[in-house]
Design brief:
Keywords: ATP-binding, Nucleotide-binding, Transport. This is ABC transporter ATP-binding protein. One of its GO terms (molecular function) is ATP binding. The chain has seven helices and ten strands. It has 226 residues and is α/β, with parallel strands linked by helices. The protein has a six-stranded mixed β-sheet with strand order 6-7-8-3-9-10, with helices on both faces. Helix 6 links the parallel strand 7 and strand 8. Helix 3 packs across helix 4 and helix 3 packs parallel to helix 5. The chain starts with a strand and ends with a strand. It binds adenosine-5'-diphosphate (2 copies). One adenosine-5'-diphosphate (ADP) binds next to strand 2 and helix 1.
Length: 226
C-alpha cells in the first residue's frame, strides 16, 4: 500500500516578489510501504523543501499530498500536527538532541509526550539504542558522545514513537566518510527491521545506491524514477 504520495506539488519562496524562487515545479512521487528511497540532488535543488512539505512542516502552494493514505489538503493545523506526530519521524544532518538529557532520556521523552508509560518507553528506547549499537552509551549526555554516536541516538529518537514514514535530510552528512558509512548501515538496518518507509536525502551516491531506488530532482521536478 502507498505510504507517501505527492502529485503536482509546487512551492515557491517570496512568491510574487522580484526575489521569487520556484523551488518545486510539479513533483510527482509515490512511496510504497516499506520502500527506502534516496533523494539525490545538488545543494539548493529543493531536497529540504520537499522533505518539509512531505513531513507536513511546510505547506505546498499547489498539489496533493497523502500521508499514510490520508489526504492532507485542507486539514486544520491541529490535524496536520496530529498526523505528523503519529505518522512521521525526522532526522537531520545535525542531531538536535537535548543537551541536558542522557541518550536514554532523549529517546524516552518523545514517547512520554505521546502517552507511553515510563517503563514501556525505557524498554523501547533501550531496544532501539541496542539495535544501532549505542546501548552502552544510554546514560551519557550528547556532549559525551562522538558525532556518530550522537547521530545514532537521533535515529532512535526519530523512531521512538514508531512512525510509519521516516524523512531524513543528509542523515550522515556531518560525519567523516568512514563513520558515515557505518552509521548509515546502522540506520538502514533499523529501518528495515522496523519495516519503515523512508525518504532519505543525500549527496552521497554510494549511500544512495544502497537504497531500493533513487529519485533525482532537477529544475524542480523528479527527473527519473528508476
Ligand atoms: P536543498 O535541501 O536541496 O539544499 P532547499 O530546499 O534547502 O534545497 O532550498 C531550495 C532553494 O530554496 C534554495 O535556492 C534556497 O536558497 C531556497 N530557500 C529555501 N528556504 C527558503 C526560504 N525560507 N526563503 C527563501 N528561499 C528559500
Ligand atoms: P514535538 O512536540 O516532539 O516537538 P512536533 O510536532 O513539534 O513535535 O515536531 C515533530 C517533529 O518535527 C520533531 O522531530 C521536530 O523536531 C520536527 N520539527 C518541528 N517543527 C519543525 C520545524 N519548523 N522545522 C524543522 N523541524 C521541525
Amino acid at each position: 500500500s502507498e505510504m507517501l504520495s505527492l502529485s503536482g506539488v509546487t512551492k515557491a519562496y517570496a512568491r510574487g516578489k522580484p526575489s521569487e524562487v520556484n523551488v518545486l515545479q510539479g513533483i510527482d512521487l509515490m512511496l510504497q510501504k516499506g520502500e527506502v528511497v534516496g533523494l539525490v540532488a545538488p545543494s539548493g535543488a529543493g531536497k529540504s523543501t520537499l522533505l518539509h512539505i512531505s513531513g507536513l512542516l511546510d505547506v505546498a502552494d499547489a498539489g496533493d499530498i497523502r500521508v499514510a493514505g490520508e489526504e492532507t489538503r485542507g486539514l486544520s493545523d491541529r490535524k496536520r500536527t496530529a498526523l505528523r506526530r503519529q505518522a512521521i519521524g525526522f532526522i537531520y544532518q545535525f542531531h538536535h538532541l537535548l543537551p541536558e538529557f542522557t541518550a536514554l532520556e532523549n529517546v524516552v521523552l518523545p514517547q512520554l509526550a505521546n502517552g507511553v508509560s515510563q517503563q514501556d518507553a525505557e524498554a523501547r528506547a533501550l531496544k532501539l539504542l541496542d539495535k544501532v549499537g549505542v546501548a552502552a552509551r544510554a546514560g551519557h549526555r550528547p556532549a559525551q558522545l562522538s558525532g556518530g554516536e550522537q547521530q545514532r541516538v537521533a535515529f532512535c529518537r526519530a523512531l521512538a514513537n514508531k512512525p510509519l514514514l521516516l524523512l531524513a535530510d543528509e542523515p550522515t552528512g556531518n560525519l567523516d566518510p568512514a563513520t558515515s558509512d557505518v552509521v548509515f548501515a546502522a540506520l538502514m538496518e533499523v529501518v528495515r527491521e522496523e519495516g519503515l518507509t523512508a525518504l532519505i536525502a543525500t549527496h552521497n551516491m554510494e549511500l544512495a545506491g544502497r537504497m531500493d531506488r533513487v529519485v533525482r530532482l532537477d529544475q524542480g521536478r523528479v527527473l527519473d524514477k528508476s
